[in-house]
Write a structure and sequence with these properties.
about 25% helix, four-stranded parallel β-sheet, about 325 residues, seven-stranded mixed β-sheet
Length: about 325
Amino acid sequence: MAIRQTKVAIIGSGPAGLTAALYTARANLEPLVIRGLQPGGLITTTNEVENYPGFVESIGGFELADNMARQAERFGTNYLDTTVLSVDLSQRPFVLQTDSGDTVESESLIISTGASPRKLGVPGEEKLANLGVSYCATCDGFFFRNKRVVVVGGGNSAVEEGLFLTRYVSELVIVHRRDTLRADPVLQDRAFENEKVRFIWDSTVTEILGEERVTGVRLINLKTQEGTTMEADGVFPYIGHIPNTALFNGQLPMDELGYLIADNRMRTTVPGVFVAGDVMDHIYRQAITAAGQGCMAAMEAIWFLAEQEHLARRQALKR
């Protein structure tokens, strides 16, 4: 347990946080990145990243995040492998209490806590978590070799992670509440062409069945209200995300969905506090946009700290 003082604290270590770390480190600010429960962020659960500029073929999500972390470390970034339990933004330096018992005092703060997968909220989901219910195909796909697996959702994450699962499963059933996918056309084409993939349209999962492991799901057709039961060995929900903003309730403004609000320069209503990535962006939600926002937040933090130092010097001269 210790008190750690820094000019820049960054909560979160996905593309937004690691880019912010790179830029503030190159400004000789020696930022402290608090990595949280998932170092590298959600991108580490993506098997192949094909749309990040600079990689002609593709790069694994974990590898991309690891490269970013090592690049930022090369210029002086420090890492703290713990989670933040509470934040006091009422005065500077800001005070962060961590799960490890460390207290962090920082002159500026960049929030890049991201968003977590949204759960279905149906019976059986909690009970069977890690017993056939998973939110990470890359992490758990191997355990479903020659099994039938249900993916719930129709966006990029659902289709992309579903296609990854076809490396292992005997059959992949994509259950979507609409009659068309929302995923990018290139992903749709791959899914429709894959012989292992089957679709159940206009439907949703109402219950996950099983005692010691997932054995099936109950479905309802949203148009006909007809209910059916299907055998399955695994369920992977990909139905959106919830921003990780609980730490800042009552301290920073949020929109109706719980995302932090910032201006077009990543500034919050608290001077010295900046945001970047999926914690404030529910529209684009891409690694490249998160990285860009991390860059913007970092530059704003650099300018903010320089201004504070200038004001402090002026005050000192007046004495």
